[in-house]
Specification:
Elements: H1 3-8, E1 22-29, E2 32-39, E3 42-49, E4 56-65, E5 68-77, E6 87-94, E7 97-105, E8 111-115, H2 120-132, E9 135-139, E10 148-151, H3 155-168
């Protein structure tokens, strides 16, 4: 379907805050959610899943930093205690496509962030794979963390809500 690749171009109009004050869910399917967040008149669209019964969460977001779009993922586990200055690798495999990213710790000890800064076209391909994928596996090379497996059924509809949000802001 052409809708997803064409709609991804809408991301070029995004501006986003560093943190959200007001959040409104736009779509929820099979545990995945698209949302809009607003802080001081600035808007952010995102999608992902809240902590599941294993305490894990995964978010895809976009923001504008120094005039450039910045795509990133945030993931975490409520049992983690990650140092803010921590660095490492995370590999996200969606069906047969793989993204090998560097992560950093954040101000929240149960979360890490992996950036697509400077590689926005790669971020767009990642979002397309997410929308069309059936299964996602996340691994942490060099760490003692078991692989995460996620069912991506429903992510196409959630991604379309995410992109519709991006066209409006």
């Amino acid at each position: 379907m052409r809708l997803v690749p064409l709609a991804l171009a809408a991301l070029l109009a995004l501006a986003a805050p560093a943190s959200a004050q007001n959040v409104r869910n736009l779509a929820s399917i099979n545990g995945w959610t698209a949302y809009i967040a607003e802080t001081n008149g600035q808007y952010l669209c995102g999608m992902g899943t809240q902590a599941n019964n294993q305490g894990r969460f995964f978010w895809i977001k976009v923001e504008r930093l120094q005039g450039n779009l910045h795509g990133f993922i945030q993931l975490g586990d409520r049992s983690w205690n990650v140092r803010r200055e921590a660095r490492g690798r995370v590999v996200v495999a969606i069906d047969r496509q793989t993204a090998d990213l560097n992560y950093t710790g954040t101000s929240q000890p149960d979360m890490i962030e992996a950036s697509y800064q400077g590689a926005f076209n790669n971020f767009i391909r990642f979002v397309e794979a997410f929308a069309l994928g059936l299964r996602m596996q996340i691994t942490f090379p060099g760490e003692t963390v078991d692989p995460w497996i996620a069912d991506l059924r429903g992510t196409r509809a959630v991604t379309e809500a995410f992109l519709s949000c991006a066209r409006r802001i």
